[in-house]
Amino acid sequence: MDSANPVSGATATDKEIALAQWLRDRSRVVVGYSGGVDSAYLAVMAFRTLGRDNTLAVIGRSASYPMAQWATARQVAESFGITVVEVTTDELNDPNYAANPANRCYFCKTELWSRLAPLARSRGFATIADGTNADDLADYRPGAQAAREHGVTSPLADFGFSKADIRERSRVLGLPTWSQPSSPCLSSRLPYGTTVTPQRLKQVEDAEHALRSLGITQDMRVRYHDDLARVELSGAELDQWIEPRNLTRLQQAVASAGFSRVTLDLRGFRSGSLNVLHGVTAA
Amino acid sequence: MSIRRETAGGEPGLEGALAERGLVVRVEGRMGLAVLVANEAMVARLGDADVRRAALALAREHGFSHVAIELRADAPGIGDARPKGV
């Protein structure tokens, strides 16, 4: 990372100033873009710093990418005038990925970056960046290895942006994603070793969509355990929905996606929950 | 990176520990996940955050990293959620 790295004691504004300089130094940047909080912020920063012709946001689409996320990604890009290209990725047909090992994300990101890198080069972009942030580094993230192997940089992590920093700056910049729940790919809901199939991903997506339709707005996951769904809700929403009068609605919503058994996690939402369940650590 | 793969196997112990604190449930273990099958009154008790915290602490003591309450009204064992062997 550059000598301008402001991590130690820096405010979110300091980090943003350094990020803007980093972007200017690269002139043209492709952003691996999902429409999540992090990549949306990075894409908007690139667009504001470098302009439309020098910023390209690339969406990788597959069955593991939620439709609702895709809609948000398109909406944000359109509202800011960011150019978007979509590439179809085929990680589910990679047996290494479908077997769902603990390093599943490595195979997914390898597929994504191997399709995105040639596209970037063909359009004259030398720099590819993703939205990995500093908080992500604390969890087990095998996808980061694939990024390194393909020369993909993670400036938000390098400059020490926490998720809170990104939300704060996104709010200031007027991004609608500033308060959006985090949104990893749907395969993250399946325990390691459970084969990833389009049907299972759709079941999880449908269940989460049904819960959103009930008015659940904060971080939430439906974890897939074969016939059983385990719902993780955040703080206040867990307190609200564990009320007996609400549990039936919760159960019915998730069951409508085809789960025969529905459970509610007593601790609630935690990022990387299945890593914990399987004892996977970053060490 | 490492993956822990053992089955926790602490169902009877957790059932007993919960029962001692007035939470009469059946525990179904799925690796590190303890699924609590309970009647309506027990589910209602878990609406109290302090009760949930206590249940989570006990589950950890018995080898479970996750605890979830089953929501099916007609779940097997419902209404007969006495701990096994009690």
Short description:
The complex is a heterodimer of chains A (283) and B (86). Chain A is an alpha/beta fold and 283 residues long. Helices cover 45% and strands 13% of the residues of chain A.
3D architecture notes:
- The complex is a heterodimer of chains A (283) and B (86).
- Helices cover 45% and strands 13% of the residues of chain A.
- Chain A has helices at 12-26, 37-50, 67-80, 95-98, 104-122, 143-149, 155-158, 163-173, 198-213, 235-241, 244-255, 273-277, and strands at 29-32, 55-61, 84-88, 127-129, 152-153, 220-225, 228-233, 261-265.
- In chain A, helix 5 packs parallel to helix 6 (143-149) and helix 9 (198-213) packs antiparallel against helix 11 (244-255).
- The longest helix of chain A has 19 residues, at 104-122.
- Chain A starts with 11 loop residues before the first helix and ends in a 6-residue tail after the last helix.
- The model of chain A has no long low-confidence stretch (mean pLDDT 92).
- Chain B has 3 helices and 3 strands.
- Chain B has a 3-stranded mixed β-sheet, covered by helices on one side.
- Chain A binds chain B through residues 102-103, 140, 142, 191-192, 225, 228, 230-231, 239, 242-244, 247-248, 250-251, 254, 261-267, 273, 276-283, and chain B through 1-5, 30-33, 35-36, 40, 43-44, 46-47, 49, 52, 55-56, 65-73, 75.
- Strand 8 of chain A pairs antiparallel with strand 3 (66-70) of chain B, so a sheet runs across the interface.
